[in-house]
Amino acid sequence: MDIVLIGGLWLNGSVWEGVASTLESLGHRPVPLTLPGQGDGAATATLDDQVAAVLAAVDAAPGRPMVVGHSAACALAWLAADRRPGRLAKVALIGGIPTPDGRPYADFFEVRDGVMPFPGWEPFQGPDAADLDEAARHELAAAAIPVPEAVARGVVRLSDERRYDVPVVVVCPEFTPAQARGWIDAGDVPELARAKHVDFADIDSGHWPMITKPAELARVLAAAAEGN
């Protein structure tokens, strides 16, 4: 199966190298995406530009792919479900949830000179970054790509209720499946509360398992793709 991989904020397709190699060994075709505005100098890229790039990868797949979103990019994966509900086999959400209709994509941190730079490690102290050593933190921060303002503050638009028919697996790194279920049951994740098929997969890591536990994450994704 084609597995489309979308990294979260400040990341491009290279972050998936370890995951991709294991997925290939397990018989799948990984498609790591580097989206407009992720290192190509296009600081004017918009959320619509990134959605279009995800849809192009979905449309290019020979069968029905699984689309994987990490962190904020869970919203991009869910937008793919909204735009191509009949084309997707499944959506996997790693360490994040879908942004509801009408909300900004990722307006979380300060925007300076038209971009949202990596804010440093202070906002991620605790479980998010607990499994990243100093070398890994330095490498991730040094490689972080500022997010164009029109991406971070772009408004998510969802319109096709057939998205709720697309199976979802919530991959839980710095939180547990029980916590995720609790958030959904409490109404804090309205999109997943309406989804008809939601499963959960646990992985003992921080917020960036593609960096700290790539082989384990790949096995989780392969199992999801295979319906296990």
UniProtKB/TrEMBL annotation:
Q: Which GO terms describe its molecular function?
A: catalytic activity
Q: Name any one Pfam family assigned in the record.
A: Abhydrolase_6
Q: Which domain of life is it from?
A: Bacteria
Domain AB hydrolase-1, first and last residues per copy: 3-219
Q: Extract the signal peptide range.
A: none
Q: Which InterPro entries match?
A: AB_hydrolase_1, AB_hydrolase_fold
In Swiss-Prot or TrEMBL terms, this protein is called Esterase
Q: What organism does this protein naturally occur in?
A: Streptomyces coelicolor (strain ATCC BAA-471 / A3(2) / M145)
